[in-house]
Design a protein that fits this description.
This protein has 668 residues and is of the alpha/beta class. The chain has 23 helices and 21 strands. Strands 11-12-10-13-14-9-15 form a seven-stranded parallel sheet, sandwiched between helices. Strands 16-21-20-17-19-18 form a six-stranded parallel sheet, sandwiched between helices. Helix 19 links the parallel strand 20 (539-544) and strand 21. The radius of gyration is 28 Å and the shape is globular.
């Protein structure tokens, strides 16, 4: 049966489905809901807690429609006889014509509560009850029409989606049948069956990915082995002005053991903020130089690339390692000199941004490729740098990727199954933990007074906001530009305050960050653009506006911008009481924070390599217990010769899935 055989699917709608990767009934059935709306519980109109609610009542007066700064805003007050709820819509002027005074309506949306004021923003009109699946937006398909289409397709689920897991394996892990899981994932009969469906689909998706990357990880490219003398790593550490931690020593030894092999290293080094990953990377560059090879280190931003370069000049150049910096802003004459030095081997180590993968860049003997903050690069960018080191003999350079985002070990094995994993799980001696506090709105003034006292002592501060500019659709969120304007003329008047954001002109952003790093600017207001790559040991205060809108791991990264010097540092999270945010107040352990973050949010889609846009594979949902179970299941399959047939079947399934979906490995 074809898509066009379903009622309501003509050529135009079929084209819309193909445009988002839905070319068959199976594709359609695996287009699972992104969330569900619970249309079963009605909240009273005097409800005063933030969150998603469904309310029912009447507007006693006609809705009012007005245009403000080019946006249409419709407002009114819904009452249910017991209380009243303010309601507003943005850019849906027709709603004022469709809802009449005295008409009973049911609305579903997010209730925002700020400074005691409540607003139900952009609610939808409810016409269906129960658990309502919500799908990604597809052109030509209103939400209700797409749900009807899914219901028709489910009639063919047995033919389109036959069971994929061997029965013995499925029963061993208590997984429901595939057709039951798909039906319940679309239209759950109750929460228990929804959880059973999500567990089955999540388990299988993780299983297929992990099996596939374990297959790919066993086929490493050939490489030139590094000829290293005994004690090279110790010689490097002796050169540094500080003693390494035991974890740094262990990880560099793991890297050295990889480099002497004739198969290309593919290793992920991850660790918490401030654990000393850069020193380990410099140690790897030292080993490459001692073996007669060049090294490259690519960072996602110019400020971070320059930081690595300046540190390398202090650490590596005294060891005879000639270093260069290549970025998009490198001047033409200097660029020509750098390209010449790379091509003839005069340059031993080059640091830079994506400019390193531009066509003119050629290496004489590239033996080591390092990418920092690897999640900021796309698959093509990473592989392009690696390919520059592949010689005429087909041998590849060794690859080292670094991540400052702590990931629980089990998830790292799933996400990066084609990489060997090293964890720096120890911080240098003397690092003081950042003291983290929740700050309610009524304590904002006290916080600013404390900030002024710290600045008077010669310290500096960050203030991070979730938005660049004010937004009518997110009226409860602080923006960097409005906070900057307010503070300069208000609580921080007289202080030197800077402003930066992601889309700021590169030259202006560079100038702003330079002023902050040099101490000319005392307080830097920004978006999350400073999350990585800004190292200012003099900054002792991090303030995060609307902290509840950020994930725990991202907040931990922002907190990591302070506490990098010897002075005591503080992180203030502006938000009401939150169990989630209390986790940050209780611990500075990034691995624990990321585990809690994962348990709350789930790991997301693991099979797609698109770093924006829609996910391609089935949904992934689950906590660390499920991730651990899948990992143990795969390990058991590899260990048990009696499971060879099952493993062979699953490997064929995994290979077919990725070939059919056109997916690539996240770190191929």
């Amino acid at each position: 049966m074809e898509l066009t055989d379903l009622e309501g699917i003509g050529p135009a709608r079929a084209a819309s489905l193909r445009a988002v990767g839905i070319s068959s009934l199976r594709d359609l059935l695996y287009t699972l809901p992104i969330r569900y709306e619970d249309h079963s519980t009605v909240f009273p109109c005097d409800w005063a807690e933030s969150g998603t609610v469904m309310v029912r009542g009447q507007f006693r007066e006609s809705l009012k429609s007005a245009w403000i700064h080019g946006l249409n805003r419709v407002t009114g007050y819904l009452t249910d006889g017991k209380g009243t709820m303010p309601v507003c819509w943005f850019n849906v002027p027709w709603i004022a014509r469709n809802i009449h005074a005295g008409q009973t309506v049911t609305l579903y949306g997010r209730l925002n509560v700020r400074d005691g004021r409540r607003t139900l923003q952009n609610p939808s009109l409810v016409t269906e009850t129960g658990w309502i699946p919500v799908y990604r937006s597809i052109r030509s398909f209103p939400a209700k029409s797409f749900r009807k289409l899914i219901a028709l397709a489910l009639g063919q689920v047995d033919d389109c989606c036959p069971e994929t897991l061997p029965e013995s394996f499925r029963l061993r892990h208590q997984l429901c049948e595939l057709n039951f899981a798909i039906r319940q994932a679309h239209f759950p009969s109750d929460t228990d069956n929804l959880q059973r469906a999500r567990r089955r689909l999540s388990f299988e998706n993780m299983l297929m990915y992990l099996i596939y990357v374990s297959m790919a990880g066993s086929h490493r490219k050939d490489a030139h082995p590094f000829r290293l003398e005994a004690g090279e790593t110790d010689a490097f550490w002796r050169h540094l002005p500080f003693p390494p931690t035991g974890a740094q020593r262990r990880v560099l030894e793991e890297i050295a053991a990889d480099l002497v092999r004739d198969s290309a290293m593919a290793r992920l080094v991850q660790g918490d903020v401030g654990c000393g990953k850069t020193a380990v990377a410099f140690g790897a560059i030292h080993l490459a130089h001692r073996a007669g090879f060049q090294a490259s280190m690519m960072a996602p931003t110019e400020i971070l690339a320059r930081q690595h370069y300046e540190n390398a000049r202090e650490v590596l150049e005294p060891l005879g390692i000639r270093c260069h910096l290549l970025t998009g802003s490198t001047k033409a004459a200097e660029r020509r000199e750098i390209l010449r030095d790379l091509a003839d081997g005069s340059c031993d180590a080059v640091f830079g941004t994506h400019a390193l993968i531009s066509a003119p860049v050629r290496f004489a003997r590239l033996g080591l490729v390092i990418t920092d903050e690897q999640h900021r690069f796309g698959v093509v960018q990473r592989s392009s740098l690696q390919e520059k080191g592949e010689g005429r003999d087909g041998k590849a350079p060794h690859v080292l990727v670094m991540s400052a985002t702590p990931i629980p070990r089990t998830l790292a094995l799933i996400l990066y199954g084609d990489l060997d994993l090293s964890v720096i799980d120890e911080l240098p001696a003397g690092r003081k933990p950042v003291r983290t506090r929740l700050v309610p709105e009524n304590k904002r003034g006290d916080m600013y007074r404390f900030l002024r006292e710290e600045v008077a002592r010669g310290r500096q501060a960050y203030i991070v906001c979730p938005l660049v500019e004010e937004s009518e659709s997110a009226a409860d969120l602080h923006s960097a530009k409005s906070v900057y304007d307010q503070l300069r003329g208000g609580e921080l008047k007289g202080l030197k305050v800077g402003l930066t954001w992601g889309e700021q002109a590169p030259a202006e952003k560079e100038k702003t960050l330079r002023a902050f790093l040099s101490g000319q600017t005392q307080v830097l207001v920004s978006t999350t653009v400073i999350e990585v790559g800004v190292n200012n040991p003099n900054a002792t205060i991090m303030i995060v506006e609307n902290a509840e809108r950020f994930g725990l791991s991202q907040l931990h990264q922002l907190r990591g911008r302070v506490g990098r010097g010897i002075a005591e540092s503080w992180c203030f999270l502006l938000s009401d009481h939150s169990d989630k945010l209390q986790i940050l107040c209780a611990t500075n352990d990034g691995f624990l924070v990321s585990r809690k973050d994962l348990e709350m949010r789930g790991p997301g889609d693991l099979t797609g390599t698109r770093q924006s846009g829609e996910a391609l594979g089935p949904m992934i949902a689950g906590d660390m217990r499920l991730l651990d179970e899948v990992t143990r299941a795969v390990q058991a399959l590899h260990r048990d010769p009696g499971q060879a047939d099952v493993l062979n079947t699953l490997e064929k399934q995994a290979a077919a899935l990725f070939e059919r979906s056109g997916l690539e490995m996240a770190l191929s």
